[in-house]
Automatic annotation (TrEMBL):
GO terms for molecular function: 4-aminobutyrate:2-oxoglutarate transaminase activity; identical protein binding; pyridoxal phosphate binding. Belongs to the class-III pyridoxal-phosphate-dependent aminotransferase family. This is 4-aminobutyrate--2-oxoglutarate transaminase. NCBIfam families: GABAtrnsam. It comes from the Bacteria. Keywords: Aminotransferase, Pyridoxal phosphate, Transferase.
Length: 439
């Protein structure tokens, strides 16, 4: 195991982080955040080296983009082969087989017995926007109900759907109308499944009649909101409400999809099937692609020309995504996700036994997090200690990210391809960082 000192390479670097950071600050708007003052030189699997030659273990995974790791050779080879043929035609002008094949694969993987169809786009926000378009076209209704703490993107519509003000919505209004928010179930913080369902029913009384609602949109596990999983009884109740009023259920799996939770879609673990599913991030293994998959009759609602995009489902990204699916099969990454999640949670619980300030350790598959409360009080979010732990980890060679409505949750999105040795090394750094931050 390398120590922080051993992680440095002594030969002089041609460039350094501080110089690049100064150039960045002069050239980029301040609204583009950066959680770590690090500039990457190269990366492999779950490790990144910066321009100064320092090695970092990557527990962020590009925010859930790198389930198959950095620069996986199978994916790199597929991309290189595609680029040598052609890099772009615009699928709506001249089509290519990889788009069709990938759609067939995702249709087969999607939960539920009904026939499916898939649309490809470029970003997660685009997928969410198009899922809303499809839902409105199918139901002929305008209303969308999202949930507090949810994150759905940074475009104007997806900001409206997002249930977290800072930093995503400050100064950017007004937002589109007919968007409403119900409570997300969070038993850990006193919001039961029934409380959340009752908040949905309250919207029908006070804000919008059920007959004007096109869809519910929900993350199976809230990402930016703190890695809280929606209880099965809540999902069953929500689907019952949806079916009673002709409302569609959209599972936003931009962060949970592509095997992160131990199944290809987290909603496979639901007791009911969603009508539409959005995916992005790790679907492309580092290349930009997103998807909306749903019941065929629903997906066919928009008229020809109503869906698409210039770069949507690019040949390079579809080749990468097909390679991602191949890697998942060859390396049994769904099983690995479950085993890795158990390993990470067990390690974090051992740390929590020594530090009562860690008030919860949770996860679904390898989507794992721990939460901090002042003095061990779960109702007193400790964002400051959370920031110190993330900063300490960086100095020790580990990339971590925080999340949560109160900024007091540390999430782990390490590549599923990480070795046990590197995962354990990362856990050791977390233990040392927590101890240092609380000293």
């Amino acid at each position: 195991m390398n120590s922080p000192v051993e992680n440095f390479i002594t030969k002089p670097a041609a460039q350094d982080n501080a110089t690049l950071l100064a150039r960045r600050q002069a050239a980029l708007p301040r609204g583009v955040g950066q959680s770590h003052a690090i500039f990457a030189s190269h990366a492999r699997n779950a490790e990144v080296w910066d321009v100064e030659g320092r090695r970092f273990i990557d527990f962020a995974g590009g925010i859930a983009v790198l389930n198959t790791g950095h620069a996986h050779p199978e994916i790199t080879a597929a991309v290189q082969q595609q680029v040598e043929k052609f890099s772009h035609t615009c699928f709506q002008v001249v089509a290519y087989e990889s788009y069709v094949e990938l759609a067939e694969r995702l249709n087969a993987l999607a939960p539920g017995q009904a026939p499916k169809k898939t649309l490809f786009l470029t970003t997660g926000a685009e997928a969410v926007e198009n899922a809303v378009k499809v839902a409105r076209a199918y139901t002929k209704r305008p209303g969308i109900i999202a949930f507090g703490g949810g994150f759905h993107g940074r475009t104007n519509l997806t900001m409206a759907l997002t249930g977290k003000v800072a930093p995503y919505k400050i100064g950017f209004g007004p937002f589109p109308g007919d968007i409403y928010h119900a409570k997300y179930p969070n038993p850990l913080h006193g919001v039961s499944a029934e409380d959340a369902l009752e908040s949905v029913r309250a919207l029908f009384k006070y804000d919008i009649e059920a007959e004007r609602v096109a869809a519910f949109i929900i993350e199976p596990v809230q990402g930016e909101g703190g890695f809280y999983a929606a209880p099965a009884e809540f999902i069953s109740g929500l689907k019952a409400i949806a079916d009673a009023h002709g409302i569609l259920l959209i599972a936003d799996e931009v962060q949970t999809g592509a095997g992160r939770t131990g199944t290809w879609y987290a909603s496979e673990q639901w007791p009911v099937a969603p009508d539409l599913v959005t995916t992005a991030k790790s679907l492309g293994g580092g290349y930009p692609i997103s998807a909306v998959t749903g019941r065929a009759e629903v997906m066919d609602a928009p008229a020809p020309g109503g869906l698409g995009g210039t770069y949507a489902g690019s040949p390079v990204a579809t080749a990468a995504a097909l390679a991602v699916l191949k890697v998942f099969e060859q390396e049994k990454l769904l099983e690995r996700s479950q085993a890795l999640g158990e390993r990470l949670q067990a390690g974090l619980r051992r740390i929590a036994e020594r530090h009562p300030e860690i008030v919860d350790v949770r996860g679904l598959g390898a989507m794992v997090a721990f939460e901090l409360g002042k003095g061990g009080d779960i109702h007193s979010p400790d964002a400051e200690t959370t920031r110190r732990i993330v900063a300490e980890a960086t100095t020790r060679g580990l990339i971590l990210l925080s999340c949560g409505t109160y900024g007091n949750v540390i999430r782990i999105l390490v590549p599923l391809t990480v070795s046990d040795a590197v995962a354990d090394e990362g856990l050791t750094i977390i233990a040392d960082s927590v101890a240092a931050a609380l000293a």
